[in-house]
Hints:
Strands 1-2 form a two-stranded antiparallel sheet. It is built from 4 helices and 2 strands; from the N terminus they run ααββαα. The chain is of the alpha+beta class. About 40% of the residues lie in helices and about 10% in strands. The longest helix has 25 residues, at about 5-30.
Amino acid sequence: MIHRSGLFSRLLVVLVGVAVLLLGYSLFRENLSARLTRDWPWKLKLLDIQSAVTAVLGTGGAALARAQYARTVRPAIGYGGRVVANTAPNERLAWMCKLLNGGQEVAIIADTSYWIEYTSAERAAGAVDSSEWMSQPEATAAIVSRALAERRTSS
């Protein structure tokens, strides 16, 4: 799961929306008769049309530039795993998972969760695959509850 900053990803979109509303208000107000611009709320002049267009172009350009930058530096995360002998204590088997970050920025693991999918033979015997991600103790308990052998590979 890739987390992104809500402030930086949504703030520019909000600013573009505000700029578009200001432009719409300015265009509408500019086309009203002089008699109507004497009354509230049309008496209020927020921006002239040129400034409102500049605000839309500036915020829109910044939003496009930020989106392009986010696409350029987006993470390229990959992984792979296999059972390896003699890596766990007492020379037991261990599942080794290797993560690959092919992106430009540093990747930080903030949470580790597990998902279990049983073989078709285990499902036929009553095993139920994971319905949500779980912690390591929960995954271990699920495996032990099926009386599966720990730390051994099957041929």
